[in-house]
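Thread: TIGR01459 family HAD-type hydrolase, structure

OP (GT): Posting the sequence first so everyone is looking at the same thing. Length is 271 residues per the record. Can we get the structure tokens written out before standup tomorrow? I want them in the notebook alongside the other entries.
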Amino acid sequence: MTRSITHLSEVLESVDGLLLDQFGVLHDGDKAFPGAIECVQALQERGMPIVALSNSGRRAKPNADRLARLGFPVDAFKAVVTSGELTRDLLLQRLADNRLSRGGSVLLLSRENDRSLIDDLPLTGAREGEPVELVIISGNSPETHSREDYRRFLTPLAQAGVPGICANPDTTIYAGGQASYGPGLVAKDYADAGGEVVYLGKPDAAMFSAGLQALGPVTPDRCLMIGDSPRHDILGGNRAGCRTLLITSGVQAGTPDGETAADFSMEKLRF
């Protein structure tokens, strides 16, 4: 049964390290949530190891830079682990295995035209309508593209058998400070149109393995995963053997049950 708490400090005696989601827990992409910076600072003063574990389709450095820009003490985090970083590793592996052509064209969908996933790789970024050998869905832009817009130009690629990688499986995101549809739904539409899609990120075991490895000598049962998504953060944390805490005010929060039920819940992150 989920125990409701008002302050994180209520449960820290049984915790040696934290895996901490970003969006919906620390910030909305544009500004930090009230009390979140102070909570991270208090954890840092306590010497609590923290790893940011995010389904961001961007690499680790752009995410760390954003945390700093929003006012978080970045040195409080042992690492920033993102699904974008895991995607970059997969691209390198496919290039090494010749499953992706050197100089090959890829269609990268991202927010703010972020190209960090393919920067410095022997790949060519393609534009809409050009032939490609891979579609990478790392982000979407609800401000300028409707879900139907994406369906219109992606469906022919899916029907042609072009494989896809979803670097951010979140189905809801913050865009302009408001909740909107996420890249996970763009990827779902691609799969529904016949495309083969590999999903990287929470709740997959590989994401939590990377987070726990970055955290250091902390056993899963002494690690607390804090997130706002029952289907991503809580489910993945439970399967990894971690303790879990659901932030109920987050953009992803729903009605958890079974494997998506957390050990603890609180409305907003407070120390």
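GT: Both are above now. Quick notes for whoever picks this up: The mean pLDDT is 94. The chain has two domains: 3-55+205-266, 86-199.
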